[in-house]
């Protein structure tokens, strides 16, 4: 699979042509930051609704990340970050490969940083429960931060669910996340989503629950 890396690295003196190209890319990225900030207003959505809309719900560990420049359909250059998700457990939908590369707009490349409000940033080495949609150009995570749940190993051997802001997920009520302690176990959280009909239209067999 193409990792989307830029060809070669910038080392030593940079020829004038490359300087002009870099300046043009910087201008494009600065322009994008204004565009993206306006384009990423996300309404608050219940997790049950997000789950029903998701084509794939997966648990995976971030094995690494890399940044690259990519053109959007309008020809604008954007910094994207590719997250390599490993050790996958698929709860809804299907993934054809052992790893999954998750590409989101924003990141840091050759000293340039593009930060887009609302786009979640994942930590290398952490395990997440992710709600993914189809062909979203900015970020395939549905609801952006609302569709990302860091997982923590508890002392009793269970895996516990948290929100991206660090708060523990204590339950679901009316399809909405309830925050508080203690954190809900992953299998209990997924069972609650099943009761909300999140996988009702999924063709995937029940199988083993993610871990």
Key features of this structure:
single chain; 211 residues; alpha+beta; six-stranded antiparallel sheet
Q: Gist?
A:
With 211 residues, this protein is an alpha+beta fold. It has three helices and ten strands, in the order ααββββββββββα.
If you had to describe this structure to a student in words, what would you say it looks like?
Strand 7 and strand 8 form a beta hairpin. The chain has one domain (48-195). Helix content is 19%, strand content 32%. Strands 3-2-1-6-7-8 form a 6-stranded antiparallel beta sheet. The chain has a two-stranded antiparallel ribbon with strand order 4-5. The chain starts with 15 loop residues before the first helix and ends in a 16-residue tail after the last helix. The protein is of the alpha+beta class and 211 residues long.
Order of helices and strands: HHEEEEEEEEEEH
Proportion of strand residues: 25-35%
Class per helix and strand makeup:
alpha+beta
Strand order of the largest sheet: 3-2-1-6-7-8
**Count of distinct strands:** 10
If you average the pLDDT, what whole number results? 81
The rough form would be described as globular
Number of helices: 3
Low-confidence stretches: 1-39, 203-208
Can you tell me the number of structural domains? 1
Radius of gyration: 19 Å
The biggest beta sheet is recorded as: 6 strands, antiparallel
How much helix is in the residues? 10-25%
Q: Span between N and C termini? A: 26 Å
Write the layout of secondary structure elements.
Blueprint: H1 16-39, H2 47-53, E1 56-71, E2 77-92, E3 100-105, E4 107-109, E5 112-114, E6 127-132, E7 148-153, E8 159-161, E9 169-173, E10 176-179, H3 186-195
Antiparallel strand pairs: 1-2, 1-6, 2-3, 4-5, 6-7, 7-8, 9-10
């Amino acid at each position: 699979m193409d990792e989307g890396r830029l060809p070669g690295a910038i080392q030593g003196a940079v020829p004038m042509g490359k300087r002009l190209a870099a300046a043009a890319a910087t201008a494009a990225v600065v322009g994008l930051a204004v565009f993206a900030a306006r384009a990423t207003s996300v309404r608050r959505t219940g997790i049950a609704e997000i789950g029903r809309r998701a084509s794939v719900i997966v648990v995976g560990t971030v094995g690494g990340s890399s940044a690259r420049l990519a053109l959007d359909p309008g020809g604008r250059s954007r910094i994207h970050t590719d997250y390599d998700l490993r050790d996958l457990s698929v709860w809804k939908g299907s993934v054809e490969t052992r790893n999954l590369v998750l590409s989101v707009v924003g990141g840091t490349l050759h000293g340039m940083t593009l930060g887009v409000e609302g786009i979640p940033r994942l930590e290398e080495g952490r395990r997440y429960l992710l709600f993914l949609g189809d062909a979203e150009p900015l970020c395939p995570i549905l609801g952006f931060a609302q569709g990302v749940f860091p997982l923590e190993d508890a002392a009793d051997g269970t895996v516990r669910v948290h929100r991206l802001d660090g708060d523990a997920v204590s339950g679901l009520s009316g399809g909405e996340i309830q925050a508080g302690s203690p954190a809900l176990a992953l299998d209990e959280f997924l069972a609650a989503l099943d009761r909300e009909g999140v996988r009702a239209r999924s063709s995937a067999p029940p199988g083993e629950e993610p871990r």
